[in-house]
User: Fold this.
Amino acid sequence: MTRYSRIAGTGSYLPPRRLTNADLVAELALQGIETSDDWIVERTGIRARHFAGPEVNASDLALQAARHALEAAGVAAAEIDLIIVATSTPDMVFPSTATILQHKLGIAGCPAFDLQAVCSGFVYALTVADAMIKTGTANKALVIGAEVFSRILDFTDRTTCVLFGDGAGAVVLEASDMPGILATDLHADGKHVGILCVPGTVSGGKVTGDPLLKMDGQAVFKLAVGVLEDAARATLAKAGRTTDDIDWLIPHQANIRIMQSTARKLKLPMDKVIVTVDQHGNTSAASIPLALDAAVRSGKVKPGDTLMLEGVGGGFTWGAVLLDY
Ligand code: ACO
Assistant:
């Protein structure tokens, strides 16, 4: 019998501090940084984002999202035999946020590791977990995207600080004799490192270089639109499906215009696209599982629906996962 992996439950968590564009515009104005609700909405579709408090780390957000996913799946934490946390804003340089989360979940022994592919992190993590389940290395995996991007934002740079937010999303992925994940497609091209990065590092007890996010927005935009179409088509081809089979497109939530453009290229109407960027901003690796959980809990995504999950981010990295929910 063929062994597949299937999503058994989803969960998410947003820190309680919610800033509307008006709140952020007012805070930035105090530092002499000029922006507006109109500019942010028109260029990005973002209306609000959540920021974690100073004492809250990625593992804390991941813990809440994981608990919600475990509850939805009807799975006890003790049954989990693999934890992968996709994050670019880990609690510490080491150990991994996944091991910190494992301890917070009150479990021990199973493999736990972080996966760093920036905004593609969740589709990368889901692909790795799928492979580990299919080969029998794991039976029930927690796959999480968790980020505190507010920590790495330069609040004097209006071209980036209005775009991002904090949050976490999780799924329980379990072995099944029914598909599940149908096909995956991952890519990277390191020649684009410079257009989206946090170039600083820790060395000799000090931060060296700039530890805040830098982005060439227009270059990222152009690359993102092209690779999202390619990844979707490649994944559909691997699964022997077509765009007509997609019930819901759940893309990385960076900018509504990127999503509209991708949907147009795939000839999908926007009412088949899950959009949460308006309420969450760009939460990097957390954005896809946050959007998935919102869509499941609102009743949009139903059992049996075919979902195309797609990410693109720093590296450059990109990829897609096609699955039957
Ligand atoms: N408020 C007001 N004006 C602004 C702001 C702001 N917050 N930011 C920029 N502007 C101004 C610029 O200074 C510029 O003014 P000028 O014409 O006088 O020079 C003008 O607005 C236009 O700026 P552009 O950069 O050309 O704006 P654009 O339409 O390209 O939108 C944006 C910028 C939103 C960043 C867009 O390029 C984008 O979304 N890019 C993709 C970003 C993305 O997807 N990133 C995430 C990838 S995921 C990851 O891995 C983290």
Notes: The chain has a mean pLDDT of 98. The longest strand covers residues 166-176. The chain is about 35% helix and 25% strand.
